[in-house]
Amino acid sequence: MLNDNHSKQTSGIVRYSCGLLFMLFTFSYLFFLQGNVLAETQYIYSHGLTTYSILMGSVLITLILQTLQWIVGRVFKPHASFHVLSYLPSFILLAFITSSRYSLITTAVWMWVLPILLVFSLVLLLILKSRFSTPNLHPASIATLLWKNHLVLFILFLLCGTVSTLKDVYCYELKIERLIMEQDYEAATQVAPLSLKTTRRLTELRMFALSQQEQLAERLFDFPQYHGAAGLLCLSDTSLLYRYPVQRICYRLGALPDSATIHSEIQYLQVMNRIDTLRTAVTQDYELCYYLLDKDLNSFAKKLPLYYPDAPTTPLPRAYREAVLYLAKTQKKHFKYTLSPEAYEQYQQLKSEYTDAIEQKNQTRRQFGNTFWWYYEYGD
Prior knowledge:
Elements: H1 2-33, H2 35-45, H3 54-76, H4 88-97, H5 107-131, H6 142-163, H7 168-181, H8 185-188, H9 200-211, H10 246-253, H11 265-274, H12 281-293, H13 297-307, H14 318-330, H15 342-352, H16 357-368, H17 372-378
């Protein structure tokens, strides 16, 4: 009787500890790492008709998977030595749910891998149950049972996370996209602000978030600009996988482009700024920033006085100040804007300290990588 009570107490400790660890991991995994992925997945499969709540979704999925484990445990009644294996079906379903288009296992592969893995896990439980059906005269200690179960549980955590290998920039894209949909533009620009990794899509979303705060020209080069003008706006990228596609960006700017008459991004922006009812400070900044990213300084110099006629009364944004100063120093063009050349002179001084082109590029980037000067001379 004492051994029986001890066995039940030991089994209870193993069950509750594994359950607690599983729910903590599953909720954290779903809420902090996979929330935006699941939100995108639901948007795609529902064709935008439904939205996914990260908090409620994480709680609900965690409870469903824990309930599934409880059912498996009640049916198979696994021995405390391998109680953790009753979580195999739950882990398999968790890996399936969180697998994205960047997963190691594609959706097509999952269609035949999923049932095989589920059947395998149930067969394994049956085999182990029959092996441990006879009472053990020398039961393992509680410490031994716990570390064995917890070790296997930890391995399952790692395997589950390995299946869904997400790229950092993909996660950044999804998070910024969600924040833009929530109109939290300031938070969107705070997503991985120091990361040098980016994509064209990620850059486009960041630039749009800046424009909605009237900070586009002020902070244009605070983020990596590896894609030039295409990173500002790309009308040809009309993927149906996006929750916030370029059409919505254009709609927020004022008008959708007519594909029959508009054949480029700069043509779209120029047309917008020629129509009084469509021209805004945001569309003007988009056009001027397009010229800067395209390194078209002649067009920039022509349009800047038209869009900022009140300068020097109204201070120019930083990207424009730097471009005007560069034009004044390199092409001897004169503008009525008030400029401070100290930073540019420091930039030139730092350049002169290095003769090797690669070393010069890398060293100047550390201090001036967020300036128009560095982008114009070294940017890809």
